[in-house]
Amino acid sequence: MEIFNNTTNVVKDDLQKTIRSGSKVSIAAACFSIYAFQELKEQLESCEELRFLFTSPTFVAEKTPKERREFYIPRLQREKSLYGTEFEVRLRNELKQKAVARECAQWMRRKAKFRSNTTRDSMNNFMLVSDGDETYAYSPMNSFTTVDLGCERGNNMTNIVVRVESPESTQFLQTFNQVWNDKEKLKDVTGEVIDMISTVYQENPPEIIYYMTLYNIFSEFLEDISEDVLPNEATGFKDSVIWNKLFNFQKDAALGIINKLEQYNGCILADSVGLGKTFTALAVIKYYEGRNKNVLVLCPKKLSENWMTYRGNLINNPLAKDRFRYDVLYHTDLSRNSGNTAVGLPIDRINWGNYDLVVIDESHNFRNGNGTDSQGGEKENRYMRLMNRVIKPGVKTKVLMLSATPVNNRFYDLRNQLALAYGGDPEEINGKLKTKSDIDTIFRQAQAVYNTWCKLPEAQRTTDHLLASLDYDFFEVLDSVTIARSRKHIQTYYDVTDIGSFPKRLKPVSLRPKLTNRKAAINYKEVIELLTALHLTIYTPTVYIQPSKLHKYLDEKETEKFRMGREIGIQRLMSINLLKRMESSVHSFLLTVKRICDYLYDTSQTIEAFRNGGSGNLDEMTDLSGEAADFDDDDQNTDFFGVGKKVRIDLRDMDYLSWKRDIDEDIGTLSLLIGMVEDITPQYDYKLSELLRVIREKVEKPINPGNKKVLIFTAFSDTAEYLYEHVSGMAKTQLGLNTALITGAVDGKTTIPGFKAEMNHVLTCFSPKSKDRDVLYPKDTEDIDILIATDCISEGQNLQDCDYCINYDIHWNPVRIIQRFGRIDRLGSKNSQIQLVNFWPDIALDEYIQLEGRVKGRMALLDASATGEENVLEAKGNGEMNDLKYRRRQLQQLKSEVLDLEDISGGISITDFAFDDFRVELQRYAKEHPGALENSPAGLHAVAPIPDELRSDVKPGVVFCLKQNDEGNDPRDTNPVFPYYVVYVSADGEVMTKHTQPKPALDIMRAVCSGHPEPIAKLCREFNRETRDGTRMDAYTDLLDDVVAAITGTQQDKGIESLFSLGEVGSGTVMGFNDYSLVCFAVLR
Description:
By secondary structure, the protein is α/β, with parallel strands linked by helices.
């Protein structure tokens, strides 16, 4: 008898002596590892046979579902031990698994037999070596692995094996033979074992490596999917018209949304402009309507026609067969107490609490939360109404939000929208998220990080820097409740053959026409100087009311500060609006200036009459609803246009003399301005004549053969009408083309006689192919080639027949510029190229800065409500930013390139944060290939070709997927997919993606590996020649070493000793690899 402690005296050394030529080896153990074979290869090659008995069911199917649940995971682990156990990581990380597996399988075919216990009866584990005269029994031999042979350290405190000889050992042999021949309890699994080992050395399709990576990272997601969470296909929603109109990326989004709505009660769909969010949302609505749920769509008024069409029994409704029945309300309906909605429901009788799903189109209009209008109490704003009437009472309401811009310049924007999903009760969502902190803390910390990032020098203010600074919890929240893909993402990672591609964007044409070519006339700079001299205190009467009398004018809920803040908000909006209208057209500007001047004059006359003994009452302008036509759509969507109650101010309560002095100064300034601007009649309007020139040139020299279409955008309906008046006649007489006008304010117009100029009719005749005119209006034959419109069509419309978009004014919200261009810059356009033309105000950008001191304001420009989270009167330092300075920076960036939304500087794109696509892809693959991923061995690789279009961004190299063995040491605050790491390293050893940000590496893996369901024979031959069939993997172990060094370099708390505990430098063993297991890798060529 001999005892082996497996440290100083190891079993392997003894077996090398006892196994001789002609020996018979019998083993009863839990599992078999190819690395144990490698250690004893020479001896096992010379033995006569090896019989291996799996002591627990292995490679046998379970009998009942109950057994499956209890035994499936341990059985899988035993089977997978063939490729090495968790303690043989070092060997697998040498990347020679393929060569070892090939040799082992060849040997097995000649010498080995495997049988498995099929019962739950347990038995002893031991190994026997007999050569006729002598039999040696080694016990216990729990598993035939390098740990039990004493070559590697396991996790047992002791690992003692005892060897006994004849005659005692014959008892072991008899027992083994007896069990081995029991055909009822054992099953031959030799073929299964050889097949499984063969999978290690066969060539792998790149696709399987990509999906193996996803499976390892997101397998919990597959396990979590229950019938409750996953769309129930029994509702038949996949047979609907809408489902079959969706592209793959939209179907993925729809399934992801339903999953999130079921799990978290809410979801934000933030796909970029032009990716069809409306259709994706309609598929989700169809799913819930199929389950007999009530659905409410809340949309801006300008988008209501789309939503109304899709639910109507109309010939121009392509989805009529789906019979949608959702209700439609405008955002502004939430501010009303009476009247009817778009679908004819009386607002005062709506059963608000009975909606199971609310879909909010353009949900960023709700981003200010309670803060928009409630700081002094005053009335409930839209946000609060939605929360208090629809979401909190009655049935449990799910909320789907659609917005290409859910984040403006604060992460709080996102939190306020998400709060709708959890009914304003953070506890509702905190329990569902896998985060360390609660949702309010997560957003507070993220906002602090963002504020710090904003102050960095421009060179450091990169998206990468921001992503690296944010906490894992923040990514987890976004990943849980948002779906966001950019157009680059769709183009790169989806097969767009069925969709078509985006057209090529030509470099934008920038024009800077002066105001007029009339001699000695006023110019932009002089206009701005006069505008910045205005007081506009006509809009802030509260400032002039004597403090002791102020209480008479305040609501019981309203504070003085709130009221002043509101008035200053209106004042500021008016001053910015003058700048906006001046940039738009001389015509619009003059209308507004005259209107303000008349209002000032009437007020001044009232004060004068009071001084001369008349009555002293004034109606205060509490809101701007009467002036709405003067403003662009973004401004009209603020609460200043909700009808407030009229307030009569008694002039005896005011310092009316100071007020009148300011008003009279403004009248003088505006009168001067009116006199100078009135000289610029249409024939002297240089900007207008430039537009006419551009249209003529485009029609004479089209950028796509035969395409004469031009789309002209302006922010103001006054400008649009002015342009229609002067463009339509020229186009008809000189070019033979029809022109149409669409604004939200007046009915449409067109030069086609007898044409009914409803919005959808006009748009269909402007873009007949994309809008299916032949189906909807078969009698119409005349085309509209020139369309002049306001931003009422800048969202949710597909006008891709057109290839030429003109911004007659540069909107102050850069998102609008991108959305306007998005009407023609769409997937599947038939135009090979498209052109954007921008008309800039003729003022040097630096002059905006020189004028800076004159107009005070806040940076949150796009949200022109003065009562956000901080009060305007106490605006703090870092938020303070002059409107003109903001405008200058914005113009500078827009000038140089056509932007995607996610490119706007200082903007945050949540496309950087979500893993949803990967999960949905994995789910689809797992469904189509059942069992393909669960049984895949670790350590596999594939060789994949880098597509030509990616060669400029992706260098040859390797994407490794690793798993950290010690899951207790959790750096999840930095790595969202812990314990896994996905890292891309170039062939020269440069680590190209951060291990803390797996998404870029996964994106690359998807782009290179997807679409290759078969091994690439040519690349495999090259790789095998280079590595001598997997026996010379040194170059790749070096790259793996670089990746591990990158990971451990940032995880400072890892013990340094463990990194150097294996092998010596230059020994060919990779250091630190007992901390990480190789899951799989893709070689990119």
